[in-house]
Automatic annotation (TrEMBL):
Residues 165-323 form the Metallo-beta-lactamase domain. It holds the Pfam family Lactamase_B. It comes from Gossypium tomentosum (Hawaiian cotton). InterPro entries: Metallo-B-lactamas (IPR001279), RibonucZ/Hydroxyglut_hydro (IPR036866). CDD domains: YmaE-like_MBL-fold. This is Metallo-beta-lactamase domain-containing protein. Transmembrane segments: none annotated.
Length: 355
């Protein structure tokens, strides 16, 4: 399917802003945001590998900050935040790494802990006893994001260390399913996705989160989409390279929005029917608030702020990032108010960059 420039149509929205992220309003208007984000991976992955090679089994032992019990996090944790948003009733952050602060006591909590274990990009979540129900947990992937509000949208799990622990999502679409960014390749996940109709397009938001894209492309004979500015040696053979500034259309209900800043070729995917913006590393919600993760910027922070400003014109209720937590806005007015305040403070913070 050819990609073409399309016009932007705005419409009103209506939804509920979840209480779990009420702090977004306050955090978004601070000039400085604590950037303890999931992308600590780059440095810590190197540190973890070094520690493990130097000290052997020590790195795989439980951190002393874990509570007693079966589940624990070892010293190889890269602080990607995955387990903390997947199973917040079990995992928290202590000493710049995740730990188990409460052992699961219900079947639901145990399942979420096992899903987090399977999704951990560095296999840093472990159990004292091999879990007899691990196969049952594997069969739950891909996981519905919200069956009532977002039907047909799934979290793939199996985060890859090669993508710094980024999340991947699947959209079930009548024109062919769309895989957004690459999860770690496992045949078990591939078989489950196959039963759901396979993959027609593998949309790569930017060059960082491509992980096992080639294996997925081979498995499903799907077309990969990536902006030409982010094409590297490992992605030189992607089937569809976006050129220019867009926006581009993928059918009638999907818009691809160029959002340069984190990288030169970062592109967001707007799924119009459910008003979801998949942002990759462009914009995210961390434990500390709304963030563009400046410390991991690879191109231009000021341009990234400009690209956040650009999002105000689009109609969406949800932000689903590659890193960090999902955001649901109450309505378009709330979305615009929060983004405008965030951009205003960032412009103030980086005003010297524009001189």
């Amino acid at each position: 399917m050819a990609l073409a420039n399309i016009a932007i149509n705005l419409a009103s929205v209506g939804s509920n802003f979840p209480s779990s992220i009420d702090k977004l309003k306050n955090s978004s208007i601070k000039a400085q945001i604590n950037l303890r984000v999931s992308r600590n991976s780059l440095v810590k992955t190197v540190q973890s590998s070094s520690v493990e090679s130097d000290t052997g089994k020590w790195a795989r032992k439980r951190r002393p900050q874990n509570v007693d019990g079966d589940f624990f996090v070892d010293h190889t944790c890269i602080d990607c935040d995955t387990c903390r948003w997947m199973a917040p009733q079990v995992f928290t952050r202590v000493g710049e790494m995740s730990v188990v602060y409460k052992q699961p006591t219900s079947s639901e909590d145990r399942l979420k802990a096992l899903q987090a274990l399977l999704s951990c990009p560095t296999s840093s979540i472990r159990t004292e006893v091999p879990p007899p129900d691990i196969l049952e947990a594997q069969e739950t992937f891909p996981i519905p994001v919200d069956e009532k509000k977002l039907p047909g949208v799934y979290h793939c799990g199996y985060h890859s260390e090669k993508s710094y622990g980024a999340a991947s999502y699947l959209i079930i679409h009548p024109g062919g399913n769309i895989l957004i960014d690459s999860p770690r390749f496992t045949e078990k996940l591939a078989k489950e996705i196959e039963t759901m109709g396979g993959v027609r397009y593998l949309f790569l938001t930017h060059k960082d989160d491509v992980a096992d894209h080639a294996k997925w492309a081979t498995r499903f004979s799907c077309d990969r989409i990536l902006h030409s500015e982010d094409v590297e040696i490992c992605t030189a053979d992607v089937e569809m390279k976006l050129e220019g500034n867009g926006p581009w259309s993928l059918g009638d209900d999907i818009m691809l929005v160029h959002a340069p800043g984190h990288t030169e070729g970062t592109v967001c995917l707007l799924y119009k029917p459910l008003k979801i913006l998949f942002t990759g590393d462009h914009l995210m919600m961390t434990e500390s608030g709304l963030s563009i993760a400046e410390m991991y910027n690879k191109y231009s922070v000021p341009k990234q702020v400009d690209s956040v400003q650009k999002l105000i014109q689009f109609d969406f209720d949800w932000i689903i990032p590659g890193h960090g937590r999902r955001i649901q806005f109450k309505d378009v007015q709330e979305k615009n108010t929060i983004l405008e305040a965030f951009v205003r403070e960032k412009y103030k913070q980086y005003s010297s960059s524009y001189k």
